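Chain X:
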Amino acid sequence: MSSLPPEQLLERWLTLHGALIHRILRAYAFTSEDRADLLQEIALQLWDSIPRFRGAAGETTWIYRVTLYSALSWSGKERKHKLGREPLAHPPLAPDTTAKAEDPRLAWIYEQLATLDPIDRSLLLMQLDGQTYQSIATTLGFSVEKVGTRLHRLKNNLARRFEERGPKQ
């Protein structure tokens, strides 16, 4: 457990793990408005999780777990609610974290992530972030063997897709 007050701990987490959080945002929220909403939800869930953080799991693992579960939960709720909503004619401006010119291969990877079910998306995102199989298994509650098997299948599937119609370079 950290000796920092909760406000400073949350600020520290958001600063140190901002890149991780934004990768998850991009994998689960596909518009700038949705990313802003999901970021608020993640920040709230991280805040609520501070009293339960005891340091048994590493800080990065804790942040990953809370962020990923928040994104999965938010994604499910959004899917249900989008059916009854109409888009705003002139949506308010929200910061777009993807406005920079990016590598088309990276854009292709995020497009492919968006087509996966939430668990497979989580597995692949964590693998792309360099998480070990053990860390992924701990975060998602799977066995290491199940993580390995599913990731192997996902990579083969993505390799096949890439060969069929890979990104334009």
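Chain Y:
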Amino acid sequence: MTDLLTQTPLRRGLDAILLLIRLLVAGFLIVSAAPYCFQAAKLTEFVALMTKYGFAAPHILAPLSVWVMFLASLCLIAGLATGWAGLVVAFNFVVAIVMVDRFQGISGSFPSASLIAMGLLLAAAGPGRYALDTWIARRA
């Protein structure tokens, strides 16, 4: 009965759940960021969007944002510098909500808010057992 209330069996799978969250976030960000990283026309669209919403220096911030998201995704997949990658993801999507999504209401902000929550969860909980961070920590 206690296991039913505390969900102890589910907690035994926490490392796998953290891996799943890392892969889901990274997969979404790679699919979202890669076109902007590797297609000039898509990056030009993103610069125009950032200009429309009043971002400072959109010609600098647009490529910086997409490349940072792409690299953070690779870190999340590997479980390398996971805490920092999670914080970078969270920060990027706080900016997205403040500058763009807030004009689209709760439904428009929900994907960004979810990514903030998952980024903060990974930063606070760590990557779990199936990660380079854990392997490196064990060797040290």
